[in-house]
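Final paragraph of the annual report: two paired records, presented back to back.
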Amino acid sequence: MTQRDVVSWNAMIAGYAQNGNFDETLKLFDEMQMAGLKPSVITRNAIIAGYSYNGQFDKALEFFRQMQQAGGKPNLETWNAMITCYAQNGCCVDALKVFQQLQLAGLKPDSFTFASILPVIANLNVLQHGKQFHSYIIKTGFHSDVFVANALLDMYAKCGSITIAQQMFDKMSQRDVVTWNAIIAGYAQNGRYDETLKFFIRMQLEGVKPDSFTVASFLPACSHIAALQQGKEIHGFIVRNGFDSNVFVANALVDMYSKCGSLRDAHYVFDCIPKKTVVSWNAIIAGYGMHGYGEDALRLLFQLEQEAVKPNDVTFIAVLTACSHAGLVDEGWEQFDRMSQIHGIIPRVEHYTCIVDLLGRAGHLDEANIFIEKMPVEPDAGVWGTLLGACRIHRNIELGERVAGHIFELDTKDAGYYVLLSNIYAAASRWAEAAKVRTMMTDRGVKKMPGCSWIELKHKIHAFLMGDQCHPQSEKIYSALDVLIKQIKTAGYVPDTSFVLYHVEEQEKQHMLYSHSEKLAIAFGLINTCPGSPIQITKNLRVCGDCHTAAKFISNIARREIIVRDLYRFHHFKDGLCSCKDYW
């Protein structure tokens, strides 16, 4: 072009900015000014958006200030760019202030404004503000815009109002892949994994093709319920559609395989990631830690550091947890010190909780208690609860009572803490105190979550509660279990009735132990799978100590590997032994 006007320059600058070539964008911006042309607000908007997209938050802010000082009048697109800039950098309160400035400037929000501000509401988790914005959106007529409707749906889901999100989804006359992604991710984030699976299937039945974000949102549902076969099928779908090159999807696969018990597959996927992010490393380190391989987790941390990847706070939560599960007390302390001294990461309450767990599992209860008292941050109920769990393991009633006192000052609604204290009393046959704790729960309206174990068989999840007789194969399950109990008793198994929390006759205690959900799931697996094949079950709580012992005997007698994932870790039972080496 022999003659270039502002429109020509704007088109080129915006084009380069939108295509991610920001260096060329800045070069053209400088050339435009050297040519004697004054950049318009459109030009400046492209530069702000470019800085924001490339993570140069400070430069975006400085450019915006210079624009105002030079007399430039921001238009709606400028304010939208600034809202996005603040939101992408986690400055949610500032993003809301920009929205207010936009209104004070006499401008009316458009669909892009609302779609940018609603994720801010979601991140702040301020549902009431979200509802106010929803009303405003209806008044301005943007509620029918699919772009805005998707953002609203996502906001409600992330704020925990999945029912309202579902109602919005049902009312939408137009749905795109983003709509489906929002509802699938919403159900997964709210722990409604069955619905997550149903919507993933429904999405495809309605002719909407999942994208990389869909599968990355769906895989955590497979992880949670340990649906390995479904996870493998999704992996096949990912490969066939070329999503395996997406690092977010690959990271989700590593996490899924680790949590579904297949560490070998998790490491295979990890090795295939060409450009591993810190999230990739965190997923595989956490996987090894969850399976009790603490030394391998430490080796992965050192490998991460050698490859010049900067670890973050989540990395060290994974590492410290791995050390705790493997009983690596000295190594855990070393990594806790290195975190701040070498990597400059300030410990959060989660890191302190890991150290309490590290010490507590190893039996250093007094040291753990002193550590809590000297913490530079205020210990929450989770920190004290971790120590209470250690008191349960090591049967320290006196300290357990003191710790429970701290907990109930902070949190009176979590049933887990009451159950731990009741278990401590029951294990010591102090039935009156145990009953008093249960009465306290009733008086405060606290309900205990029932223990549940489940197993995946032929793409179907079979779940069991203690004493469950609702399964169609109940008669066969109990018959097989009777035979198993006799066999393992002959082999040396002695029921540990200290895990029965009620003051009843010894014989009745044993019968209660025999019908624990873990044993029912194992028996179901034995009668419904091929001889010699592994059995994998998942439990929503910590595995019962008596069931842990029984599983070792069953693995030896049945010649099966039995894999149990409980709330905290994996146990691999084989030939009468457990991978945890009875340190759990």
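The closing record of the year follows.
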Amino acid sequence: MILKKNKKSPFAILRLYSIHASTQCYLHGRHPINHSKLLSGFMKSGDIINAERLFEEIPQRDVVSWSVMIHGYNRNGFQRKSMELFSQMRVSSLVPTSFTMVGVLVSVAGLGDPVLGRCVHGMILKNGLDHDFRVATALLNAYAKCGNVVDSYRVFGQLENPGLVSCSAIVSGFVYNDLFQEAVVLFNQFRRLSLVPNAATILTLIRACIKLGSRLLCESIHGIVVKISCVLDVAVNNSVLDMYSSMLDLDSATRIFEGMEFKDVISWTTMINLLVCLEHASDALVLFRHMRKTGISQDVVVAMNLISACSILGDLRRGREIHAQAIVNGFQSELPLKNSIIAMYSKCGDLDSSRTVFDQTNQKSLVSWTAMILGCVQNGYLRESLNLLIQMRGEETFRLDSVMLIGVLSACSELALLELCQQLHCHAFRAGFPQYRSVQNSLISAYSKCGDMEPAYNVFKEMIYIRDVVSWNAIINGYGINGHGEIAVTLFHEMRNGLENPDAATYLSVLNACSHSGLLEDGLVIFNQMVEGHTIRHSEDHCGCIVDLLARAGCLSDASEFVNRFMEKTGPNSWRALLNGCRLHGNVELAELAARMVYELDPGEPGQVILLSNVYASVERFQDAEALRAGMKKKELIKNPGISLINSVISHIG
């Protein structure tokens, strides 16, 4: 038998043992002690073995002893054992009391068996206990926990004068079955009957308000909390704090948190989690330091939030410190925390530590594999991510979820593995992911980067009811990078004429498409629309596209004038685009100016030297070209090698 860990004082247990030992001689005598109290004490302390032993030693068990044991099994989580004991009690011809039936109904609620619930209901009717207030409340709660809201509400309706406990129970039952609006309506009806809610009712109602996502309801329930003076209840305050946190309302949550007279670890955890969700990672770490000063010990949830904060900041040193604290506190066996640590090390660029934690995890979950595979993708170890996927498929029975599928598709697209993209597409179809917008968007991008626009467009076409701005950006960018600028521009205009508004990424994609396809007029018109619309601010990347567009078309003077006009919005990439245009059209003077500007803005990058050297070579100034390359060698400037993918093998080309 699995026993729950005893959380009571060991001295209380010893006292129970002493009382038990001193009363053994009275079990068969004339002066019996109250066995029920002793049984209850054992059950409350979690000592089921001694409770069972004492129960077996009682020569004549009355209904109270049986009932205490039934309740005791429930208390310790053994609902099935509780029902078995009730069956034995029925065989002994004892008539159950209301106390007995409440215990039995608690078992039914724990088991969630609707058929068993109806059987017990029949027994209640047979014994005439259906008008007992406590039994009726336990019955409607049992029906609700079994998913039978109709019968639960029917039982409630048969109560002549339902009190606060019954009203709270039916509201809780509605919330348990995700009938949140109905629960709020019921609560309002009870308020009209002048029933004042207690803390339990408020906690249930807050859960409904969070699920409904209604700010007005949340503020109303907060007002009720203040009105009925529940603000000193830590559990209620924590729920109100969680309510505002679910709405990502930092100001309101901060006011609640700072106004709390008593804070427990849940209060601090909720506030730290909100800061992490809003990516105020530094503030989350500062708040943790304040928490430690109050003497409250962190739990595993706090540790997970701190690890997430380090991931956001990319703070490897602090991430290692928190990892060490987690080991000291004995949290190293917690799988969710391990998964967070794997992801943290990956996001901080320490893939070796991430792999070490992953390999040391004996019982890996799908989240563990996903974190490690995505870590490899994020750090550029694409082959390793695919090898891990193969390893997972061989060792585990997990099915790819949408998150892992998106990560693997990203690796395939970077490696241009078209066949594997097609296999993953088939898997996505079989797994029911066609309605997952993020998966479909990733498929469009993957096919586009593999150079096959036909399946990319087919995926896009099938997304007619679930397209978003990312879908449009992916297909426009796909046609652009594959040299189909005209189609990209057509799709852009189709998007503008539809219900979706372009964002900054949309304009960047279509401007890139115009640049690569030489669509000068279209590109300039689209850029002017963006500037004149005043809804999207043009960035350095947008300006770089226009410079590249003008330079490729041979409009070098216009490109130079554009750079000077938007000087505050242009960076080294704009000058590089101008320099590349000078190489194409042999303008040495402007090329020297562009190279000088690139060097000033990005002195550590040798690419402009190579481009200027190529400009000199294009006009047969070979000595100047050679001098530039010699200077590069002297300064030990090394250009990053290009990468070629031939027959699925990565080759470096200097």
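The first helix runs from residue 10 to 22. This concludes the annual technical report; the extension proposal builds directly on these records.
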